[in-house]
Every structure is written in C-alpha cells, then in structure tokens.
Amino acid sequence: MKKAFLHYLWKFKKFDTLDLVSVHKEQISIIDLGSYLESENPIFFNAQLVINHQKWAGNVLMYPKSSDITVLENALDPSLQSTILYVVWLHDLASCTKENSEIPILELQTYVNPEIVSSYQLLMTPKSWIYCQKDLKNSSNWARTDWLEKLFLERLEQKTATIRALLATTRNDWEAVLFCLVAKNFGLNINGSLFYQIAQSIPFTILRKESNAPENLEALLFGFAGLLDSENQDGYFADLKFRYFYLLHKYQLEPPTLEPVQYAKLRPDNFPNIRLSQLANLYSNQHNLFSKIIELDTLEFAYTLFDVAVSPYWKTHYGFGKESSFKPKKISKSFVDLLVINTIIPFQFAYRSSLGQDASRESISLMRKISPEKNSVVTKFVAFGMTAADALDSQSLLQLKKEYCLKSKCLDCAIGVAVLQ
C-alpha cells in the first residue's frame, strides 16, 4: 500500500477510531490528528494522542510496512525526533518487535472499511489518460470550482519563484526581469527559450539608452538572434547589420552562441523576425512599460498598451528581400491575452508579493475575463466532463495535469478525494 493512501486515511479519518490498539497492545486515543507536512519525510506534525492513558504530543510517521521503519535514520533526523506513533498498513511480525522499537506501531488496515480500499484501487487502476477520467463528470461542484482557484494560485506561486530567481541575476532590476518575461512570451513555445536567452544577454541599461531608435533595438535583437549572420543584398538587412556591429563596438558587447531561431510549424505572423520587430517597437513606444503593467487592471488597457505593429519594412515583408502584400502586422488581441495570462498577471503577483501585498483577488478577477486557452490538455479535460469557462480554468487544468495527474497525486487533489468519498 502506498504512503499517499495512508496519508489520506489519516488526514480524513477514514478508519474506525474507536478502540485503537497498537501491535503491542497499547490503547490509543486520538485527540488531534496533527497537520500534514509534505516534505522529504512526510509527517503529521504536532499530533495529540493518549497512549495507555498517557497524553503525548508529537509527530506521526507512516510506512507501508513496519519493516520499512527506519528507526536509526529517524533518530538522527531532528525533524523526526519527536515521533510518538508509527502508522503502518501491514505489520510484518518478524521484522519489528517491542524491543527494537520503543515507539508504538498502529496497523491501520485492521480499522479500515474494505470498500474504501476497493474504491482507492479502482481509482488508481491505469486509464487511457488520467486515473479519474471516468469520474470527472460526477465530482462535486466544490471540487470543480474552489479547487481550480487554488490550483491557479499554486501555479502563480511557482511562477513567482521563477521570477525571484531571475531577480537575483539582475540585481533586483524589475524592468530587466519584465523584459525577459515579455521577450520569452513573444517567442511563444517554439522560440520562447531562445528569446529569453537573448533578453538576458542584452543589458537592459542599453535598451533604455537606445529606446528612442526602434531600428537600433531591432538591430540588437536581430543580431543576437543570429538573423544578421548571413550575407544579403537587401538594403534594410545591410542597414540593420551596420547598426548591429556599431552597437556591439559602442557597448563592448559579446553576443553568446545560441541555437538558431525556428520557423517550422509557425504561421508567417509568428515568424521570429516579425515578433522581434514588434518587441523592438513595443519598447520604443512604451517608455514606462513597467509602471503601466503594474497598474494594468483591465483587458481594454492591455489591448491599448500592446497596440503595436512591426517596423515599416516588415509591413511588406516576411523575410529579407522577399516583398509581400502590405499588412500592418499588429499584435492581435488573442496574443495580448496570452501575454496577460503568462506574463502580466504573474509579474504583477510577484511584484506585489515582494511588497507584502496580496494580489490574488485581482489576479483571479482579471483571469476570469479572458477566454480559455485552447490546447490538447484542456480539450481532453473538457471531453471527460470538466469545464473551462475562462483562462483561470484552463491554467488550473494545466497545473492539475502537470503537478497532480502525471505525478499520481490523486489523494492530494480535491477531485480525487471527492471521487473516493
């Protein structure tokens, strides 16, 4: 039996608590189950028990079998030295006697209804996609709504940790961090990592100095992306290349060796040169982007803020020297939605958290106004009976699949618990 099931049984008191007796005949009464701490050694912290009429306060540890109990290791671990009870599913008599374990051992299977075990085994039987796919339609409304909000906030906290790590490399320059995050999202899934590396490689102080000349910003971005490495007779290509080498010399820059940009599977409007041109024009047009994004609280403001097109040359080109029909190639509203979901809201949340402010309500409110993302994970959940009414739902379902379904953490998931109940 897995530890996760033992944790579930103990946490939700899914066993007969009357007349509990340890494997060595000690009477046990539960006053407080304790608080579950998920760590390298998961424990129920500060439980309160009465053992043989003596009240104890301390930790409860769980093992599939009593032979798994590592008494010596627990004695050496400061966080486990206050253990007052071992809970096991199976007590294999030959391995653990009263003499080698002074801490009482409770064999839990004796007190658990077999129907609960059958339900757990049925839930954990492998399915075609996720364990509970047949039961999603029958899960409670609470499991579908309140749990999704918690998943979204959990996802935000993870993104905040990433932003904090980036802050440490930029000496707490929030504007530089914002540029890296925006650049990554401009690259989408295919070129996102490369755009992120480019943004990290160009000191933001240089971007500030050159922001009045969008051609210079474009030259830097194109050059660091390797888009100016070849030879081309196109006049605009030659101009950008001249500006690029001038800026390299002016600021003593050494561009890193990066993987080439990718064009495969991209629509022309998502070509890396188009997105980099839009990024250059964004930072040329919006000199106070950081303060505006911190204040952003409506989608309408976001659409106005990112109402940016490409440079004049790219309005009639998709590649150097290859003229096409005129198209402004403005950032679309759907692309802005992705920026709000993946950059603006996490950035606002991280920044306000750094000031000791709680931005969860504002984040949830804004996410509820954005249409849900369309991807294979969300489509699958919807097919099995979940709903994705907005972007908060779709982000939560991504978190659910990645952090719970794929890791078989069904008993840490409100939906999994609801299915068992």
Structure description:
Helix content is about 50%, strand content about 10%. The protein is of the alpha+beta class. The chain has 2 domains: about 5-110, no CATH class; about 175-360, no CATH class. The strands form 2 sheets. Strands 1, 2, 3, 4, 5, 6 and 7 form a 7-stranded mixed beta sheet that branches. Helix 4 (about 140-170) packs across helix 16. The protein starts with a helix and ends with a helix. The model has no long low-confidence stretch (mean pLDDT about 90).
Structural class: alpha+beta
Beta strand %: 5-15%
The biggest sheet, with number of strands, parallel, antiparallel or mixed sense and barrel status, is:
7 strands, mixed
Instruction: Sketch the topology as an H/E string, one letter per element.
Output: HEEEEEHEEHHHHHHHHHHEEHHHHH
Q: Which of globular, elongated, flat, extended, rod-shaped describes the shape?
A: elongated
Oligomer: single chain
CA radius of gyration is: 28 Å
Q: Quote the distance from N terminus to C terminus.
A: 19 Å
Helix content: 40-55%
Enumerate the spans where pLDDT stays under 50 for 5 or more consecutive residues: none
Protein name: DUF2851 domain-containing protein
Organism: Flavobacterium crassostreae
Layout of secondary structure:
Layout: H1 3-11, E1 20-21, E2 27-32, E3 35-37, E4 43-51, E5 54-65, H2 71-76, E6 83-90, E7 105-107, H3 114-123, H4 141-169, H5 174-186, H6 188-201, H7 204-210, H8 214-224, H9 235-251, H10 272-285, H11 289-295, H12 299-305, E8 317-319, E9 322-323, H13 333-354, H14 360-367, H15 376-383, H16 391-405, H17 414-420
Helix pairs in contact: 4-13, 4-16, 5-6, 5-13, 8-9, 8-10, 13-14
